[in-house]
Design goal:
Elements (H helix, E strand, L loop, with lengths): L1 H90 L3 H16 L2 E5 L1 H7 L8 E4 L7 E6 L3 E5 H6 L1 H8 L7
Length: 180
């Protein structure tokens, strides 16, 4: 009983000191814990924002790729239709006069040159070759038109080259740009 009483007295003497130390240390511990929890919240917020940005960026890239594929398909359809119309033009009655005029225009620009045309078009140009020019076959010309080579320069004025030159114009003016 004496030992218990002595322990109780010792505990009673220590208790106020312990409580005062706890009260003195508690605000500092709370301050540190609050700072640590705020840092954790800040870190998790930044991480969540980065993940959301990454997912948004991936979504935009996927959407941009899908839109680009759709635009490419539309462009292909437009240029396939134009290619068909050019083939019909090259098979029509207006093609021979156009080809003669085109040959003269090239000769005016290049001077003496060799004009290259499809084998099928050689007959259309016989007797209509500009002075100083020669005529040769080039079956690499798909739709029609002419290529020319002079001593100084070369020209590609084929229907395929003219069509290909329209790709940039089409993308710029079609309203099919991909911006967001």
């Amino acid at each position: 009983s004496a030992i218990r009483e002595e322990c109780a007295q010792t505990c009673a003497a220590i208790r106020p000191k312990t409580e005062s130390e706890i009260e003195a240390a508690l605000p500092e511990a709370q301050k540190k814990e609050k700072a640590r929890s705020e840092e954790t919240v800040r870190f998790e917020t930044v991480r969540a924002e980065a993940q959301a940005n990454r997912q948004m960026s991936e979504g935009r890239a996927a959407l941009r790729a899908e839109l680009a594929a759709q635009r490419d398909e539309l462009q292909k359809q437009v240029f396939d239709a134009a290619r068909e119309k050019l083939a019909a033009f090259a098979a029509g009655a207006d093609y021979a006069p156009w080809l003669e005029k085109n040959a003269q225009h090239i000769a005016d620009m290049l001077g003496a040159c060799t004009l290259y045309a499809r084998s099928a078009d050689l007959a259309l140009l016989k007797g209509h070759v500009p002075a100083g020019c020669t005529l040769a076959a080039d079956d690499g010309i798909a739709l029609g038109g002419l290529k020319a080579v002079s001593a100084a320069e070369a020209a590609d004025d084929t229907l395929e080259a003219r069509l290909k030159a329209q790709y940039g114009w089409f993308l710029e003016h079609s309203g099919l740009s991909i911006e967001f």
